[in-house]
Amino acid sequence: MRATTTVDLLVRGGTVVTMDAQRRVIPDGFLAVHGDRIVAVGTAAEAGQYRAKTVIEAGGKAVLPGLINAHTHVPMTLFRGLADDLALQEWLTKFIFPAEAKNVTREMVRAGTRLACLEMIRSGTTCFVDMYYFEDDIADVTEAAGLRAIVGQTIIDFPVPDALTPQIGLAQAERFIQKYKTGHPLITPAVAPHAPYTCAPETLIACRKLADKHGVPLVIHLAEADTETQTILERYGRRPIPHVERVGVLGARTIAAHVIQTQPDEYAILKKYNVGVAHCPQSNMKLAAGVAAVPEMRAAGLAVGLGTDGAASNNDLDLFEEMDTAAKLHKVVRRDPTTMPAEAVLEMATIEGARAIHMADRIGSLEAGKLADFIIVDVSNPRQLPNYQLASTLVYATKSSDVETVVVNGKLLMRDRRILTLDEAAIRRETATFRTRILESLQK
Ligand SMILES: CSC[C@H]1O[C@@H](n2cnc3c(O)ncnc32)[C@H](O)[C@@H]1O
Ligand SMILES: [Zn+2]
């Protein structure tokens, strides 16, 4: 007779999409969780030895690794819809930077982050990479919501809401890193130089030194628009990727967002430093920035994850939409329907996303020993039937509203669409207050 093992949480009966090295999909599967970890994954027949305080019956549902948003600016949810249908430079310099100068405070950042966490939990995101201002507040609110995040304090060469100079920004970033760097269960602090066109080489070097000193990730917007390529060529005589290499900002645990304006010989530079790429197709389409060479970067061995970018350039934080868009965008630009199949974009939102953010040893797949970050998704809506192929159903026919249950670090954040860690009504009220404030600020 087999001994019984008591665990905290047992999910049984669902189709478990492991995203492990063999990409195993277990039709009648189970997942056992104890503390913050997955302790076993297998077929329902093997689940018999486990007893749990909480059992979730997932028959007819898909159980997947939590989705990973590799690039966003969470407080920008409060700027959603404020300035649409503009090119990057005009959008940033005429609308977003001025709106931020008037409105970004600790209080605003906390409110925007709460709204973002609510949206992300509801749409199946369990981990995100952020870069913004007042990141200690973002970290605090994220931890309370129960989500996992890499939280990057922005460094930029002009006065911003939390730092008048990049030196002040760097000192602030160091304090923030010191507060969170020793093994926090959910928050990984990071340094986030905004971009090569807003940070001088000295600023970029100081950011790299700080990241190396504390062994934390470095997050940067890179090669996003042709205006960036022109500016960097004019200023430094090199294109953006060779420029950042020459300056010395590429290095351990770098995460570069966008990476659109590339030439094939530049992939080797990114590969040399193991740079993870955050592909943000919806933001890139909306700002008409261009189309990143994702199939080529993947073929060159780069880890490419998926990001939404901020809600002011997307305009949501929905990775199900982002998967659908990524799969279709690359087909249409190449006139090749075989490029970026559903399985590939599902990888980008899970295990490849984890590789891109340098966390694949801990998250991105459902395997014993990994952190228990997973979602349970209904796949029985008429719109998803008859469901011949699960990756296809998830990428092309599933909506974020089909996400029913979300677990991060072994803790339930949403069960059967009921949010357990945030006060949804209070967030709606708070958002309405900020809407009025932001509108008024723009009339002054
Ligand atoms: C480093 S984040 C802070 C800074 O970046 C701005 N921002 C938001 N989205 C983008 C983007 O796609 N490219 C460049 N800059 C962006 C944001 O408004 C903050 O000021
Ligand atoms: Zn961005």
Could you provide a short overview of the structure?
The protein is built from 15 helices and 19 strands. With 444 residues, it is an alpha/beta fold. The chain folds into two domains: 5-65 and 372-419, Urease, subunit C, domain 1 (Roll); 67-356, Metal-dependent hydrolases (TIM Barrel), CATH 3.20.20.140.
Describe the model:
This protein is of the alpha/beta class. It has two domains: 109 residues, Urease, subunit C, domain 1 (Roll), CATH 2.30.40.10; 290 residues, Metal-dependent hydrolases (TIM Barrel, Alpha-Beta Barrel), CATH 3.20.20. 38% of the residues lie in helices and 23% in strands. It contains 15 helices and 19 strands. A hairpin with a 2-residue loop joins strand 18 and strand 19. Helix 11 crosses helix 12. The mean pLDDT is 97. The structure holds ligand LTUXU72L and zinc ion. Zinc ion binds next to loops.
**Total domains:** 2
Mean pLDDT score: 97
What do we call the CATH topology of the largest domain?
TIM Barrel
**Major beta sheet summary:** 7 strands, mixed
Q: Per CATH, which architecture of the largest domain?
A: Alpha-Beta Barrel
If helices are DSSP runs of H or I spanning 4 or more residues, what is the number of helices?
A: 15
Spatial strand sequence of the major β-sheet: 3-2-7-16-17-18-19
Spans of at least 5 consecutive residues with low confidence: none
Helix proportion:
25-40%
Count of beta strands: 19
